[in-house]
TrEMBL record:
Pfam family, one: Acetyltransf_CG
PROSITE patterns: GNAT_YJDJ
SUPFAM superfamilies xrefs: Acyl-CoA N-acyltransferases (Nat) (SSF55729)
Name of this protein: N-acetyltransferase
CDD domains in alphabetical order: NAT_SF
Taxonomic superkingdom: Bacteria
Start and end residues of each N-acetyltransferase domain: 4-82
InterPro entries xrefs: Acyl_CoA_acyltransferase, Gcn5-rel_NAT, GNAT_YJDJ
Length: 82
């Protein structure tokens, strides 16, 4: 897994925890990992950070035997095109 991606309670992020360059928020409910949104700072867009976060979340879900439920439209698209 990518060392630059960090985890806090129900989120993965890149950069400063207070002002991340990119983040993915999720909720764990039972055996589901609900991806609620991804956001990338405007200056960091186009670098693939959001896609990298979704892939990281996918690996996390697999490692923890969670089923991904993508509410976020971006995450839905990335997971559909894997």
């Amino acid at each position: 897994m990518n060392e630059k991606i960090k985890m806090e309670k129900e989120r993965f992020y890149v950069g400063d925890p207070m002002e991340p360059a990119a983040e993915l928020k999720f909720e764990e409910r039972g055996e589901d990992m609900i991806i609620t949104h991804t956001i990338v700072h405007p200056e960091e867009r186009g670098k693939g950070l959001a896609t990298e976060l979704v892939r990281y979340a996918e690996q996390y879900a697999e490692d923890h035997r969670l089923e991904i439920v993508p509410v976020c439209s971006f995450a839905k698209e990335v997971l559909r095109n894997r």
